[in-house]
């Protein structure tokens, strides 16, 4: 593992140095990760090569997600988000200049690693696209693979080359190949993490159909826009479901086939009623629960409700955003393995990814 | 001001009740904000109609941004983000069902309000598009107007109608009209806030040209992709600038016409040197400074450097993301009126908005 920079990314002479290191290593059968990277984390063995001290960068707990990243910086961000939002990590490899071990090798390795359930890739440029394509095609049948490729543009490619000496290559070709290999393509770092959080915390939907429950509808409007853009199917609650909801919920609630608006007067009990009844409907594959924690009478009772809703077996994604009080509630929910998103748009993106992986897996 | 719901948004009978309220009010020359909203905040007079208690929702301090929002929920989020990220608010109006006072009236009012420097609009459906168009066309010559329109799709429009009884209308027409009226169009809630934060905290660029300074290049690659997508011009540092940078900075720094990569070994002093020299270059209109706070030897000295850099008069946008340590540094920077973004993509969007407003204002 070579952490230090000063190789291919800094110019011609240093590129020769990198070549010399590789040829020497090959001679003795040594594989190399790096150079110009932050190295490796294995949460189970405790191997941690990072030069980032613990008081600067917190480490995530053990879990099923393994990261492959060309950029150490992007890796640091993803690891701390994982640590804070309760996403458990198996292994992490930052490979920087990729002088030997590449993303294809790492995907192959993670396909054989029993501790890895989900593979996440941040990539700036491909060296051996076919190798990655083939490895990903095999693994994506068993384990979800989520990928973000930066360096999409001319300017981005130039930035990538001076960063890790990688050539960007034509983005549309790369993305089409990724999708063909069964990978889920994310479009920015937040989206990458949002998708991974849903995958790591929630079961796969057994059918299509998203139902939305809320106590404040603005974010629902924006989520609805995104669902339509993505072509995610929305639930059509059955007549018996609608009747049960109307019977059990207060009369001022606005109940439609797709959305249960409990209004700003919603209590935790109202959420429990709505989510329990909706979860039983055959047209519901995923529960999207939007909270305005700023609005009383919604109270901390919701923190006892959500673990009960999870037991019903359908995936649950939540949305909430605001200041310190909201963050406190969100922190508890995240630890209960309930993924919470700051906006309706981001919730919709995560839901879309779950539905896409469900489609891919059902085709196997 | 009518906060309660139970009017047009709940169906036909309640729509009649709303009409009756309006006709009675008209008879006596009374204007109405609402119903089905959270009402009004005026940070200077202390008027605050919100039913959200202070321990659930923190309030922002006084400043130059005024909000107009159809959704109270979106309003709560924006206000708490403003409070936590040091964006000062003048006035806030949530108008819900918009039975009388509409966004056109509010834009007109804010154009005459000396405490309002920036107008922000979240809208789900238009009632009187021409009135908004005309009011915005007048005000945008003096004050930036940033707008987000939800309810873009069929599904979103249905959600909006059951939310505030608003008809969505054709989105492309609305967005084209907004741009023609000189408004900056945001595409989601985070983007809306990101743009407002830049506008509220930083001066307008006096020329095009973004220079990037970093100690970890991943986010720079993604920002570069976005700059190219947006058509934001990147700096071309002059030969004397490049020579000065090479002379003053450590030899392992990677210095190009567009980007100064100080590498993971960067100190606060290196940032100061790089930003000071780059700010003097005529091709630089905006300084984009990316921090990996996880990487020593970058230390808290940077918190003394940035206020000095702001004094040079060119707008500065920063990028940093991670866990508790990073958030602590970001909090201090935000209070120093340095806007900090979690990703390079979001920084690029804010930079693009500043450049667009600069273009609009230079055409006046």
Classify the helix fraction of chain A into a percent range: 40-55%
CATH topology description of the largest domain in chain A: Rossmann fold
For the record, what CATH class of the largest domain in chain A applies? Alpha Beta
Shape of chain A: elongated
Compressed to H and E, one letter per element, the order of chain A equals HEEHEHEHEHHEHEHHEEHEHEHEH
Radius of gyration of chain A: 22 Å
Structural class category of chain A: alpha/beta
Quantity of strands of chain A, as a count:
12
Total tally of structural domains of chain A = 2
The fraction of residues assigned to DSSP E strands of chain A is 5-15%
Could you say what the CATH architecture of the largest domain in chain A is? 3-Layer(aba) Sandwich
| CATH homologous superfamily placement of the largest domain in chain A | Succinyl-CoA synthetase domains
How is the biggest beta sheet of chain A arranged? 6 strands, mixed
- Number of helices in the DSSP assignment of chain A: 13
The oligomeric state of the chains shown is homodimer
- How far is the N terminus from the C terminus of chain A? 37 Å
């Amino acid at each position: 593992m070579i952490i230090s920079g000063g190789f291919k990314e800094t110019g011609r002479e240093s590129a020769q140095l990198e070549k010399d290191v590789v040829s020497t290593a090959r001679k003795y059968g040594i594989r190399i990760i790096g150079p110009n990277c932050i190295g490796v984390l294995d949460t189970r063995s405790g191997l941690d090569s990072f030069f980032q001290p613990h008081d600067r960068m917190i480490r995530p707990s053990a879990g099923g997600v393994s990261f492959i990243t060309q950029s150490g910086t992007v890796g640091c961000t993803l690891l701390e988000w994982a640590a804070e939002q309760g996403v458990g990590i198996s292994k992490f490899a930052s490979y920087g200049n990729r002088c030997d071990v590449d993303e294809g090798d790492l995907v192959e390795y993670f396909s054989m690693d029993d501790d890895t359930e989900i593979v996440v890739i941040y990539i700036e440029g491909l060296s051996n696209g076919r190798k990655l394509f083939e490895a990903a095609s095999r693994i994506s049948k068993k384990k979800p693979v989520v990928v973000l490729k930066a360096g999409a543009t001319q300017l981005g490619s130039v930035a990538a080359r001076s960063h890790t000496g990688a050539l960007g290559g034509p983005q549309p070709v790369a993305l089409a190949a990724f999708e063909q290999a069964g990978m889920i393509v994310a479009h920015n770092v937040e989206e990458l993490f949002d998708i991974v959080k849903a995958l790591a915390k929630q079961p796969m939907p057994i059918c299509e159909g998203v139902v939305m429950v809320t106590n404040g509808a603005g974010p629902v409007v924006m989520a609805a826009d995104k669902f339509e853009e993505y072509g995610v199917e929305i639930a059509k609650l059955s007549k018996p479901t609608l009747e049960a909801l109307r019977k059990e919920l207060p009369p001022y609630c606005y109940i439609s086939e797709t959305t249960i608006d409990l209004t700003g007067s919603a209590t935790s009990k109202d959420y429990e009623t709505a989510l329990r009844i909706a979860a039983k409907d055959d047209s519901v594959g995923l529960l999207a629960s939007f909270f305005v924690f700023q609005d009383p009478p919604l109270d901390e009772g919701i923190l006892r409700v959500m673990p009960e809703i999870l037991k019903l077996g359908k995936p649950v994604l939540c949305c909430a955003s605001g200041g310190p009080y909201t963050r406190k509630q969100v922190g508890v929910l995240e630890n209960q393995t309930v993924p919470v998103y700051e906006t309706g748009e981001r919730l919709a993106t995560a839901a879309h990814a779950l539905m896409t992986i469900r489609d891919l897996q059902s085709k196997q």
